[in-house]
Design goal:
The chain is about 80% helix and about 0% strand. It is an all-alpha fold.
Length: about 90
């Protein structure tokens, strides 16, 4: 799923916005849309993640670098759900 999300939100959406807007505006807008596509309780951390991934894409212009970073963070989050099951309550 990380590859598909990065393909859409960074390679397509962010890149299109970046052609027309300064980095900060393109990053905030694409990150807000990225957050809206996720669970409401996770909007703030996902928004911040989106900003970081937009910055990474701005510097590297690589779907694979972003997909690896995104997938790694997803995996860490998944593991933490089992290691700290009551942390979100």
């Amino acid at each position: 799923m990380a590859v598909v999300e990065e393909l859409f939100f960074r390679v397509v959406l962010f890149a299109l916005l970046r052609q027309r807007l300064r980095f900060a505006y393109a990053a905030v807008l694409s990150s807000a849309l990225f957050a809206l596509a996720h669970e409401i309780t996770a909007w703030l951390p996902v928004f911040v993640l989106g900003l970081g991934l937009a910055y990474l894409y701005e510097k590297r212009h690589s779907l694979w670098t972003n997909a690896l970073a995104h997938g790694t963070l997803n995996a860490i989050s998944f593991v933490l759900l089992f290691v700290l099951p009551n942390a979100g309550s």
